[in-house]
Design a protein that fits this description.
This protein is of the alpha+beta class. Helices cover 39% and strands 24% of the residues. The strands form three sheets. Strands 1, 2, 3, 4 and 5 form a five-stranded antiparallel beta sheet that branches. Strands 9-10-6-11 form a four-stranded antiparallel beta sheet. A two-stranded antiparallel sheet has the order 7-8.
């Protein structure tokens, strides 16, 4: 099959087979391309979509981009069950197998260092959201209609103070949670809060963090998060993972070469 080579991840050689029905971007099954002490996980993609100019245009098509991202993540998830992958950025492509091997040769030392650091470890994501404050009887009832300008200003000050108090409580909760989880992880990363318009999640994102945890200690880490989930009214904790260690892969995943 002709086409460009789409690279999902770099790994050390591993003996376990990938899922038999696994497909990658564009429906092409991923394959292993070995080079010395490394393996690139690749598949074929059409030049009409993934060459430099058409890819730039395609990245503006959110439906197409979503399909590519899902296929890319599906391969990474499958790899995570059999080995420790070092994920490469979405849309990393090369002209042919030779180009992929040249990349592996040039970056072999940095890839091996990162893979050694990530071996046997996974990433867990934890997000804290501030939801609408509720009373013991249910959601807060709307304030009565103000009877004067002074009454309006009073109600507005009270609402502002209540919102500030709730926000401070959420920030304190998130800070304590992060400190607790970071102590249980080998490394952690604080990401920028998510935009609710883009993420589609309800509530205001207070904490968006990633934690690098040995796979063997993941159950204990998950239990620690679960114990916090219903601890504070109006605050929601979400746990995702285990993922390949995207947040801890280092600068080498940000450098790519085009076809």
């Amino acid at each position: 099959m002709t086409g460009l080579r789409y690279v999902y991840a770099v790994c050390r050689p591993f003996g376990k087979p990938l899922q038999a029905q696994l497909t990658g971007v564009g429906g092409d099954p991923p394959r292993l391309l070995p080079h010395r002490d490394l393996v690139a996980v690749v598949s074929h993609v059409p030049e009409a979509d993934f060459a430099e100019e058409p890819l730039r245009a395609r990245l503006e098509d959110l439906d197409w981009l979503t399909a590519v991202a899902r296929a890319h993540q599906g391969v990474i998830d499958a790899l995570t069950t059999v080995t420790t992958p070092l994920p490469l950025r979405l849309g990393t492509v090369f002209r042919d197998d030779s180009g992929v091997r040249m990349m592996l040769e040039a970056r072999e030392a940095s890839f091996l260092r990162t893979l050694d650091r990530l071996e046997g470890r996974v990433e867990w994501g934890v997000k804290v959201y501030l939801e609408q404050e509720e009373t013991p009887q249910g959601p807060a009832t709307p304030a009565p209609k103000p009877t004067s300008g002074r009454d309006y200003l009073r109600q507005r000050r009270m609402r502002t103070k209540a919102q500030d108090d709730l926000w401070q409580r959420a920030e304190s909760f998130a800070t304590r949670l992060h400190e607790t989880l970071a102590e249980s992880a080998e490394d952690s990363r604080l990401h920028a809060p998510q935009n609710p318009t883009l993420s589609g999640a309800s509530g205001r994102n207070v904490l968006n963090a990633a934690y690098l945890v040995p796979r063997a200690e993941s159950e204990e880490f998950v239990e620690k998060v679960d114990r916090t989930k219903d601890g504070v009214p109006g605050i929601r904790v979400e746990l995702t993972g285990p993922w390949a260690a995207y947040s801890f892969a280092g600068e080498e995943t940000a450098e790519e070469e085009g076809p």
